[in-house]
């Protein structure tokens, strides 16, 4: 049975009253931009963030002035500006966790001819920090660092939920139930089964994309975010055969990464 060390959910001494609401709202505006939503007007930003149009207009102008957004006057809308990309590059190049994990992930992907990914949670989605894709041919499915996937549908997200604090998991489950009311009975059973699998075996698996089977395990170390490591295969091989083949290597890499992060 797997025993998970749970990380602290907040920095020591942090209280809700210490947070800057304007900063939080500005970050919410930046988070509203996702692939396929590269140009957003005040109305769309208000809908995506739940903020008033007046608040959106004020915050967006501040972000334009600070260089984080560009304003397309002709379309009366905003897009992310180049400094956002530089922040992402600084994060990736300066992350000690990625410096540890990336070489090991690449070795596993090349030796086993599989895909290996590392992700963290952002709200109710998982964000890839690194993704090493092995393929002999050009594949239609191309996952890159920074890409988001649904938490509730993926092995990455379900493994993260298994290690998340109880209050956070409860709040997210309520959000999933509201968003996917029609199929919630079956989906909630799948999520809970996956969480139980992680607690019992150390990993869970899912196949939310056609012909893709993915296994995931949480990497939970005190004073660090909860990371989730996954291995996946694209093809016609049966799910159980893939689980039997990859569960051992996945858990071994997860233990290695957990130990290394704990020693940082």
Number of strands: 8
H-E order: HHHEEHHEEEHHHEEEH
Task: Provide a count of the helices.
Answer: 9
Q: Report the radius of gyration as a whole number of Å.
A: 20 Å
Largest sheet: 6 strands, antiparallel
What is the 3D form? globular
State the end-to-end CA separation.
26 Å
Indicate the structural class.
Answer: alpha+beta
Task: Determine the mean pLDDT.
Answer: 89
Unreliable spans are 1-14
Strand sequence of the main sheet, in spatial order?
Answer: 5-4-3-8-7-6
- The fraction of residues assigned to DSSP E strands is 15-25%
Helix residue percentage: 40-55%
Structural description of this entry:
The protein has 264 residues and is an alpha+beta fold. The chain is 48% helix and 19% strand. The protein is built from nine helices and eight strands. The strands form two sheets. A six-stranded antiparallel sheet has the order 5-4-3-8-7-6. A two-stranded antiparallel sheet has the order 1-2. Helix 6 crosses helix 8 (184-201). It is globular. Mean pLDDT is 89; it is low at 1-14.
Structure described in brief:
The chain is 48% helix and 19% strand. It contains nine helices and eight strands. The protein has helices at residues 21-31, 42-49, 53-65, 82-94, 96-112, 155-163, 166-179, 184-201, 239-262, and strands at residues 69-72, 77-80, 115-122, 125-132, 148-150, 204-209, 212-219, 227-234.
Which features would summarize this protein structure in a list?
alpha+beta; two-stranded antiparallel ribbon; 8 strands; 19% strand
């Amino acid at each position: 049975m797997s025993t998970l060390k749970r990380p602290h959910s907040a920095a020591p001494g942090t209280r809700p009253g210490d947070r800057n609401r304007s900063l939080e709202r500005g970050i919410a505006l930046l988070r509203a931009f996702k692939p396929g939503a590269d140009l957003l007007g005040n109305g769309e930003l208000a809908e995506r963030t739940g903020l008033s149009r007046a608040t959106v207009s004020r915050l967006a102008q501040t972000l334009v002035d600070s260089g984080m957004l560009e304003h397309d006057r002709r379309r009366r809308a905003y897009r992310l500006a180049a400094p956002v990309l530089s922040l992402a590059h600084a994060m990736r190049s300066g992350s000690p966790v990625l410096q540890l994990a990336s070489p090991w992930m690449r070795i596993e992907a090349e030796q086993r001819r599989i895909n290996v990914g590392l992700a963290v949670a952002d709200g109710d989605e998982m964000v890839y920090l690194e993704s090493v894709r092995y393929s002999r041919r050009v594949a239609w499915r191309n996952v890159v660092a920074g890409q988001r996937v649904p938490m509730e549908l993926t092995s990455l997200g379900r493994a993260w939920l298994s290690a998340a604090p109880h209050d956070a998991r409860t709040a997210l489950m309520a959000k999933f139930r509201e968003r996917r009311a029609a199929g919630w009975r079956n989906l909630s059973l799948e999520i809970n089964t996956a969480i139980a699998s992680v607690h019992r075996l150390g990993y869970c698996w899912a196949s939310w994309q056609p012909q893709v089977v993915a296994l995931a395990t949480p990497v939970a170390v005190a004073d660090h975010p909860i990371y989730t490591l996954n291995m996946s295969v694209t093809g016609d091989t049966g799910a159980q055969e893939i689980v039997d083949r990859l569960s051992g290597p996945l858990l071994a890499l997860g233990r290695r990464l957990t130990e290394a992060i704990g020693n940082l």
